[in-house]
Design brief:
Number of helices: 5
Helix content: 25-40%
Distance between the termini: 21 Å
Order of helices and strands: HEHHEHEHEE
Largest sheet: 5 strands, mixed
Length: 170
């Protein structure tokens, strides 16, 4: 699958759109601020291939955009250790990619944001309470995740797809 993705990334001409349950990888290129990236072993190349594709297009004077859709947080309790680790690894992946793009923009003297070339959409749903809405007889336990979700009215949108669309010339 990685080889197919890399082939498609390298052939893309104008944009790439990706949906995935998780978006992390290329840990060998992460900043080693408080971890040892080599111990994470999120080594697949897709995030780095994407940032290098954008960099090559910037260097060629062409515009290229990558859109990535992921859920706001992975399945599980948002405060749980595994979910927090995944979110941290996704953040590190995004940081590495934006850093690559920022360096390329600076080198070309282009006054633009890396977000003009790479955008992450972290899907969630925030619902307003409606009159007449069902309310359970029992109230959530104070401080529980359920109580927090009810108070914030923020709910995850589950993204389970693994999809990539790109533009390529034949």
């Amino acid at each position: 699958i990685q080889d197919a993705y890399i082939h498609a990334i390298r052939r893309a001409q104008h944009f790439i759109y990706i949906e995935n349950q998780y978006f992390l990888g290329s840990s060998f290129a992460w900043k080693a601020d408080d971890i040892r990236p080599e111990e994470i072993e999120a080594l697949h190349l897709i995030p780095r291939e994407l940032s290098l594709k954008i960099v090559s297009k910037i260097e060629a004077g062409e515009h290229f955009v990558v859109y990535v859709v992921v859920p706001m947080w992975p399945e599980g309790a948002p405060e749980g250790g595994s979910v927090q680790a995944i979110l941290d690894w996704q953040r590190r992946t995004m940081d590495m990619m934006y850093h690559d793009i920022a360096i390329a923009l600076e080198a070309k003297g282009i006054d633009a944001s890396p977000k003009d070339y790479l955008t992450f959409f972290c899907l969630g749903n925030r619902e307003a309470k409606r009159s007449g809405e069902y309310e359970p007889a029992d109230h959530p336990l104070p401080g529980s995740g359920y109580e927090k979700a009810q108070n914030a009215r923020r709910f995850m949108i589950y993204v389970h797809s693994k999809m990539m669309i790109g533009t390529a010339l034949h």
